Amino acid sequence: MSNIRLASAFSVVLLGVAACGPLPVYYNAGSDQTRTNSDTLTCNVTALKDAPVANQIRQRPPVYYPGQQYCNANGCWTSPGYWVDGGTYTVDVNQGLRSQLVQRCMAQKGYQRLELPRCTKEQITQLQSVPSGSHPTAGLSTEACAVQQSNGTTVILPPL
Fold it and tell me: Which domain of life does this protein belong to (predicted)?
């Protein structure tokens, strides 16, 4: 059973690492952040209509743990092996297609998909002191970063 706990702990660590990685954003030198978020929403809605969520339940195979042999002065014996359920999970089989549709839609609107580093706490603090919608993305530098807000929109910050 300790293997199951180890796998759960490993999954939590992976989720934490994923939150630290780069953030995918769409960039068009001629669009401000409000327009970019509006175009992204439009493309997401269109893609969702064309490739709706289609969840399927899948099952991982069970795992067999063989018995162990124990020995003492009176002899040896083997404990029985046991099976552990692999568990179930859900997969949206249209997720990949929906992602391609969004990327195509955004490309048709003149955007390119970039991966920017996530902003530091200092950069986010500066973001909160600037009125929303006033973050132009023209002249994006290599030090630019991105932050995903609680409402799901992404804001690109110029370097501090």
Answer: Bacteria
